[in-house]
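## tool: complex_structure
## caller: assistant
## args:
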Amino acid sequence: MPIIQSLLDVDFYKFTMGQLAFHRYPKIQVRYGFKNRTKAVKLAKIINPCKLREELDWTRDNVRTDKSELHYLRGTNEYQDRMFEEDYLEFFRELQLPDYHLEVIDGNLVLEFAGPWPSVIYWETMALAIINELYYHALIKGMNRFNQDLVFAEGKMRLAEKIERLRAYPEITFSDFGTRRRFSFDWQDYVVGVLAQELPRQFLGTSNTYLAMKHALLPMGTEAHEMDMVYTGIFHGSDDEIRSSHQKVLEDWWAEYGWGLSIALSDTFGTDFFFRDMSREQANAWKGIRQDSGDPIAIGEKAIAFYRSHGIDPMEKLIVFSDGLEVDKIIELYEHFKGRIRTTFGWGTNLTNDLGFKPLSIVIKIIEANGHGTVKLSDNLAKAIGKPEDIERFKRIFRYSGTDYTETKY
Amino acid sequence: MPIIQSLLDVDFYKFTMGQLAFHRYPKIQVRYGFKNRTKAVKLAKIINPCKLREELDWTRDNVRTDKSELHYLRGTNEYQDRMFEEDYLEFFRELQLPDYHLEVIDGNLVLEFAGPWPSVIYWETMALAIINELYYHALIKGMNRFNQDLVFAEGKMRLAEKIERLRAYPEITFSDFGTRRRFSFDWQDYVVGVLAQELPRQFLGTSNTYLAMKHALLPMGTEAHEMDMVYTGIFHGSDDEIRSSHQKVLEDWWAEYGWGLSIALSDTFGTDFFFRDMSREQANAWKGIRQDSGDPIAIGEKAIAFYRSHGIDPMEKLIVFSDGLEVDKIIELYEHFKGRIRTTFGWGTNLTNDLGFKPLSIVIKIIEANGHGTVKLSDNLAKAIGKPEDIERFKRIFRYSGTDYTETKY
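## result:
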């Protein structure tokens, strides 16, 4: 069975960003590039590139959306009534995924996806899920039956431990953000099903739209770095034009979805810039932010200070922590911020891929938009993306002063 | 699916003893009684007696032997060429299991099987396996799906730990003796399959004839306490007649099977008596003994002293330890006797029922043979069977001086 079976087996934020791209910038050409941050692993030596090609071909040529899936998207009203409009649904129904470019250089996979932003946007989480599943399948396929069984036994024991730990903190809420890094589709499906049953009040939902539909959960997700990155390509020009493109993202997003999806990702160009750029009015209006790099305690404290400086009670605001979470870190962050600012957790790799193997830190990021190289700085320079000269320019533009460089585990 | 699906889903010693009974004492009437040594558990409050009746009825009325199973028995030549003769195989093919008697008294199951020895003998391990599986099924059926999964995950982790421990001692050999106490048929099947794959040189075989056939392993087993116990009924009379019936067992067994199956169970009337009763010639001829109660170190030392007293090198003899084994005890016994007497291990409850639940110590033992109450003393009086006055008489007859009384875990 090919890995991807449904065009909803995609993170929900691809639909929210996808509709915005379709409505506002349908002609903008973008390019996404795959990056393996786990440098010790030469992926093309473990994954058979022909097998990867087969999976990508299958996804491009055969995975289409069906009536029920369109009904599901059309019926989504948890964030905003009828948030997906008919023009977008019609476009999505007819969608042909653009082609991909794959080559192997020095044992590494070079994988890119280019095309009009509204069409190419869906590849990200599907391609990552495919690479992960092929990788872990390669790791276990040489094992005998019993040792394979033990992998899943270990995974179940670890999942049970997470559940027991979190049950002791009934106020901690979290969501599955693990599609892109999952051990396999079946394992993510299993984990999501178990969490829905075991922690029905704490487990809020999943970023995986198909699994949200299957398990009757809330599909979770708002926006990603690619929003900020693509806008610097669309509004490319002087330093001021690039800098002000960030404000344009906030304005467009609010215009498209309003309060319902108003969780802003703060770290694309450094959280310090983000707080300088967000107006008092926006700080008042938006639900909160998502923290995805850097020291979460320090960034949470900055958020509290930011809201206070605008006379806003931080307890009315929410931080979604989503960077490299593990159960200890979740509990630590919850305890630290309890009563000071609202928190919730988007738990990825360590939730859907904790069966005893080392995690693989892989991403697919925008590398070019509208003909211009793109940059993500983030609050940890080990996660920075972009050509060195572009990164330097963007540091100046956004007055980036961070020096944190911490190799990511996830 | 009913639990028992094949008349080979029976411990192999039931066939070896069954053929001897059929050949020599086909008319002897015997009665077996069920006993739950785990007094804290009122079985009839956990197992639905109607469900137990259904399973027993199914086994009695529907489980028959088929051509392939008869071929398997006929082809068994590991102990002695064509050890099962045609008259016995024909009898077994036509076998109708005798009826059972079941009632519930004060929350306890009263379960007995009576009939001609060669026909009723097969019930023991099937009925115990049924009771165990119904019991553990009752314990897990209230659990949700994930918690049930965790039971098997835990079982797999524990099995893996056993395997890793034993892999470090490549000279330790062992067999599965866990049919009667298994968590379920499926779990025993799984454990046996894994051991065959993981420890092919150390895992010698299984007492379960069906699983030996399925996994192409050696069916393991020689004789049980019931041999000695039934013979006291057959040759009942004066103290001397009762005492000398034990020698008759050794003689008949040798006459039926010779060297191939010459492992004697030493503890029916106490191992001290056994060593007094076994002649120098028998000590020379027989492969060894099986230790099933009392202190295994002390009994092994007695065996070494016994063989030496007859001028026999103990390294030519074998002790099969089979009492309440766990991996630590196996390693301890192996290390203690290494280079002094050969050892192997018949591992029961803790091998096929180690998934996190407390084990249940249940047995089905001969309680009457040829109209006489029967007695088992064993090297641990907590395992003694028989009416109090019969036990006292047998202690005198066999000059039993043991005082050990240790509650059994298994």
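## assistant note: The two ends of chain A are 28 Å apart (CA to CA). Chain A has a mean pLDDT of 97. Handing back to user.
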